[in-house]
Here is the input.
Amino acid sequence: MAKPLKHPPLLSSESAGWQNIQVEYHCQPAQAMAEQTFSAHIIEVGLRYAATSLKVNGRLYQAFAPGNITVYRAYDPISVESYGEAEFITIALQPALFGAIAEKSPENIELTPQLSGQAALIFQLALALKQSLAQQSDPFYGESIATALTAHLIQNYTSQQKTLIDCSGGLSRYQRQIIIDYIYAHLDQSLSLACLSEVVAISPHYFATLFKQSMGLSPYQYVMQCRVERAKCLLACPQLKISDISYQVGFHSQSHFTKVFRDRMGVTPSTYRKSL
Here is the structure.
């Protein structure tokens, strides 16, 4: 996403298995980036600036401060000249994701650029994505945040503000049962917001909203809860290794399994097993 920069990113989602989104965390020295274009919409979130001014596409912008949000549209030319060291997060969102959420052709959704400003929700979502990369969280988590971020951008940074449906009432009883059965049948696999929403033929954004109304938890939180409950049953079988259990319930690594289990149960899997 940012190949012309002097230093590689400190964190990147390139190998994390995330769909329709790429996230990078950077600490870069003062430098100039030659004009280029990207096929994705780019959101840049400033965390720390050694200088307060920045030149973008030949125009000087003053009073840059931590929390500054910059939004670049896909295929718009971008050239940047920074005057000091900067720490920032870049988020690339594929136009196809905007089309799927707004249920329109991506070509009919025009993102409004922003080169200086504050946006508390975008800032918090960017920090959550950075933390997810640092902790090597489930790709489902990154995809869920990407969906929430894209819906926010559609509502606040495009002319499509009235196109998102006002969801109410939650999923039907039949839909809830289909989803629950599907989740438990596929806990050992890499579940995603996209695949769950396809089961009931609802767009990912609407599905996430309806699911939380019905279940009281986001789809990601519910899946993690189901994985922990399945793991608790498997831990009662002493012949099963904890590393094997972590993969049987859908975690990509034992360390991630241990973190999620401890967060929800207050103890590690091995400690829980000893208490049985």
DSSP finds ten helices and nine strands in the chain.
